[in-house]
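FAQ

Q: What does a record look like?
A: Structure on top, sequence underneath. For example:
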């Protein structure tokens, strides 16, 4: 049967209430779920079948309101208003009902085709509260389904209500806010003027927004500019004169209104949310000081938070470094054995040199080395990191990082971008969208690549462990410091030199601490981080190492210096000398541009082509033996900071559409890398390292 998506449902709700968790539970999707607000930045789609209905579900970014103040709010509201969704699934955090209902009431003002998923019911109970679901349903006039998204509780019922509301089998009577006689009078008058503009509920909504001086709607009326919120046709079918007449009438009303119309609209809505909550929620166990509050007194303390965060970081890194050694050694042994066996077999079969070389020395040894040195530390580090994310530590780190960002003249949303960039610079660059101020956005985009992403950190950590052994822990901390430090410094410099505008503020909510969900943690670690990074390391490394091998062996039989790689190494060695970098290192870094993860195998190749190794020694072991600490440190400094990977460059271009800024996002990290490596190397030499 040709399956058609008969129903489209959109998720809406405050940040961090479990929208993506509900989405995943309903669709079997794998959207990022974690304990901090602001994870979902783009629309994501999934489907499920319920009875004989196909439902297309759209996950949206979280938003506290539907006022067009920030881009996330606009994404959510434009989509709800675009006319595409047949029903809105409003996910509500039951433990913060009053604040969440403020959004619910705004949604109901837009559409009566809504279902409320009252999520986090388990936490509500733990906190000693209960909600009378029937009474809430009666007060809101739309179905309310209690859910525990992470356990899949309430999903069937939710699907049921989604389908019923969308198909009209269940009629709704959405609650509406009583704005008082004055404002209601204005709204009525404006609705009469707005006759041609879609259904009455939409007219009423537009009238209220005009009274609130909503920038998007006002612009649409003033200039005829298209906006999804006014439906597919926008205002184009209303003559300009009529539009402007409506607008000036609304302005007159707004200016004449006492009390202020904008304040009154918000106040009345809050009042209703408060009333409903008061009516339906009841505490059944006396309040204690919550654990979250007690822990946060220390975690967000201006002084104590720093040593505690440092201690947590040190513990995670220590466990990673200590734990990685044994499995790394075992894997290395296993791959070494495999390579020897394969070489033996291939030689026995009289396979030609051009097959044995790339297959065994390139592919097998290369891939084996990458897996052996990178896999163990990454699995341990990311498991620990994801546990901290699930418990809810990231927003606290962001909260403290925000203090530093303020010092350098950036703050708020840039902090969130920086947090995202730690995962992946591409995501970081995409997150910059939420920054409204164009100049702040550019600064955030071009400084993102200075932050160590998963890939660079994974590969870098493996190399640090290899080169620094017992001192790996302090060295790792220094590199994290260099990364964050250079990001803060360049932000400060850019803020000082180029731009002098007020940065945008941002409120990041500190969610309650939660017990980690192991399934979620393991999935994110293995698939999103380790799988993704190792996948790139192996998939891109294979052709890259093959290419290096080929270019390093042609013409066949020629001495290394006369091959293409040999010439490249020779040429680059002069360039790298002041930074303590050899031609081999720079050649390897050149081949590492597509994906930072492949540095390990590129390095093994550029050195492996020409080095005579001791008995049963791998190239990396050889490097660890022959490189001085200063050489290794200089190389890693340059590697961690130099150019962003190609995907990040592409994302930067897509987001800025500006050649200048794309080049800047290449040039800035390169400049910073060169300067810092120069200081490190020359300083180290002066100090006698
Ligand atoms: N205990 C409990 N935790 C939940 C429940 N639903 C979600 N969570 C947790 O709440 C946190 C937030 O969930 P998400 O699904 O990422 O929230 P979101 O609304 O999509 O967040 P943003 O995309 O950042 O706006 C995660 O740590 C989830 O594991 C629930 O019903 N019970
Ligand atoms: Mg989400």
């Amino acid at each position: 049967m040709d399956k058609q998506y008969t129903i489209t449902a959109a998720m809406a709700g405050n940040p961090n209430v479990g929208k993506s968790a509900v989405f995943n539970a309903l669709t079997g999707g794998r959207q990022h779920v974690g304990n901090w607000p602001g994870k979902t930045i783009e629309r994501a789609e999934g489907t499920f079948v319920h009875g004989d209905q196909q439902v297309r579900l759209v996950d949206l970014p979280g938003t506290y309101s539907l006022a067009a103040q920030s881009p996330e709010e606009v994404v959510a509201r434009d989509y709800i208003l675009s006319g595409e969704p047949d029903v809105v699934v409003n996910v509500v955090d039951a433990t913060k009902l009053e604040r969440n209902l403020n959004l619910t009431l705004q949604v109901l003002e837009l559409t009566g085709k809504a279902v409320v998923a009252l999520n986090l019911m388990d936490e509500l109970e733990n906190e000693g509260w209960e909600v009378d679901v029937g009474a809430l349903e009666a007060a809101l006039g739309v179905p309310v389904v209690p859910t525990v998204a992470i356990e899949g509780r309430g999903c069937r019922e939710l699907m049921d209500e989604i389908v019923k509301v969308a198909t009209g089998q269940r009629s709704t009577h959405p609650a509406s806010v009583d704005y008082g006689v004055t404002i209601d009078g204005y709204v009525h008058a404006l609705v009469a003027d707005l006759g041609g503009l879609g259904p009455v509920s939409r007219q009423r909504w537009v009238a209220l927004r005009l009274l609130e001086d909503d920038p998007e709607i006002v612009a649409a009326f003033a200039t005829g500019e298209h906006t999804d919120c006014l439906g597919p046709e926008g205002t184009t079918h209303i003559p300009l004169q009529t539009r402007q007449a409506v607008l000036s009438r609304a302005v007159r009303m707004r200016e004449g209104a006492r009390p202020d119309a904008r304040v009154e609209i918000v106040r009345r809505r809050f009042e209703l949310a408060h009333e409903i909550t008061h009516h339906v929620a009841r505490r059944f166990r006396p309040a204690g000081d919550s654990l979250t509050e007690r822990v946060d007194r220390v975690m967000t303390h201006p002084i104590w938070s720093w040593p505690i965060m440092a201690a947590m970081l040190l513990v995670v890194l220590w466990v990673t470094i200590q734990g990685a050694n044994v499995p790394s050694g075992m894997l290395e042994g296993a791959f070494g054995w495999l390579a020897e066996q394969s070489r033996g077999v291939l030689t026995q079969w009289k396979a030609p040199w051009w097959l044995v070389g790339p297959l065994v020395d390139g592919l097998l040894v290369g891939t084996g080395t990458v897996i052996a040195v990178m896999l163990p530390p990454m699995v341990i580090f990311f498991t620990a990191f994801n546990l901290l994310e699930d418990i809810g530590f990231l927003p606290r780190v962001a909260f403290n990082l925000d203090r530093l960002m303020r010092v350098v003249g950036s703050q708020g949303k840039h902090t969130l971008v920086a947090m995202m960039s730690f995962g992946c610079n591409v995501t970081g660059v995409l997150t910059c969208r939420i920054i409204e101020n164009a100049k702040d956005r550019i600064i955030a985009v071009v400084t993102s690549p200075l932050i160590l992403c998963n890939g660079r950190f994974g590969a870098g950590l493996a190399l640090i462990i290899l080169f620094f052994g017992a001192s790996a822990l302090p060295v790792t901390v220094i590199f994290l410091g260099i990364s964050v430090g250079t990001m803060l410094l360049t932000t400060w410099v850019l803020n000082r030199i180029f731009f002098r505008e007020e940065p945008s503020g941002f409120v990041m909510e500190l969610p309650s601490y939660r017990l980690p969900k192991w399934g979620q943690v393991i999935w994110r670690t293995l698939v999103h981080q380790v799988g993704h990074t190792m996948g790139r390391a192996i998939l891109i490394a294979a052709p890259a190492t093959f290419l290096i091998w080929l270019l390093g062996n042609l013409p066949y039989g020629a001495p290394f210096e006369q091959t293409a790689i040999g010439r490249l190494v020779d040429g680059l060695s002069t360039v790298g000398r002041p930074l303590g970098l050899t031609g081999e290192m720079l050649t390897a870094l050149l081949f590492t541009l597509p994906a930072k993860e492949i540095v390990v195998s590129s390095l093994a190749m550029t050195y492996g082509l020409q080095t005579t190794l001791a008995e049963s020694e791998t190239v990396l072991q050889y490097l660890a033996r022959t490189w001085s600490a200063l050489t290794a440190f200089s190389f890693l400094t340059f590697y961690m900071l130099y150019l962003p990977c190609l995907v990040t460059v592409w994302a930067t271009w897509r987001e800025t559409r500006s050649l200048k800024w794309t080049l800047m996002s290449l040039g800035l990290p390169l400049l910073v890398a060169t300067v810092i490596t120069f200081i490190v190397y020359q300083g180290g030499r002066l100090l006698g390292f």
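Q: Is there anything notable about this one?
A: The chain has 28 helices and eight strands.
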